[in-house]
Amino acid sequence: MTFLESGNEPTAFAIANKVEKYNEDLFVEEPSTVGEDSVDEAAVRRLALALEKRTLANQEARTKYADQPKRFMDSEIELQETLEEMQILAANPSLYHILASQTRPVSLLLGLLSHENTDIALAVLDLLYELFEPRGLAEAGREATDPLIDAMVLQGHLGQLMAHNLSRMDETSKDEAEGVHKTLGI
């Protein structure tokens, strides 16, 4: 019986356990830093799975320890590291369609633009800025890059999310001022 059949809503903990079990069943290792030349379809899928796993772990920790930031800090650091690791995808725009075909990572990235921790939102902005770098998009061609652009911009309402994110940034902070610059650059 599934969660939906039982009438119960899945909890973040239950979802995280399912993701972990899925990883174990498939012998999927945590992604390690991958080089530009070693990025292939499997690496994109591993990064997407790591993003999902770490986002769920962070949501669970934030919910469980809402009044104790030190207890969820490690999950935020891991999430931020995963977002930074995903920047390797920017060097491989021909693989964007793989990321775009997986709706969960795209929706997670867009949702993380509104994360309570602005460092996480800024890491997403850094990633998007790199992914949408005009020279890389042009070199890969529209056929390779349009699926991701469509998934984020048209279906995911990226413009609205970035405008909302701009409203909460403090330009007197160096990092957030850079985030404003990157938002406008996207």
UniProtKB/TrEMBL annotation:
Ranges of residues in domain Beta-catenin-like protein 1 N-terminal: 16-125
Keyword Phosphoprotein on entry: yes
Keywords: Coiled coil, Nucleus, Phosphoprotein, Repeat
One GO CC term, this protein: spliceosomal complex
Domain of life the protein comes from: Eukaryota
InterPro entries listed in its UniProt record: ARM-like (IPR011989), CTNNBL1 (IPR039678), CTNNBL1_N (IPR013180)
Compartments it resides in: Nucleus
Protein name in UniProt: Beta-catenin-like protein 1 N-terminal domain-containing protein
Lineage of source species: Eukaryota, Metazoa, Spiralia, Lophotrochozoa, Platyhelminthes
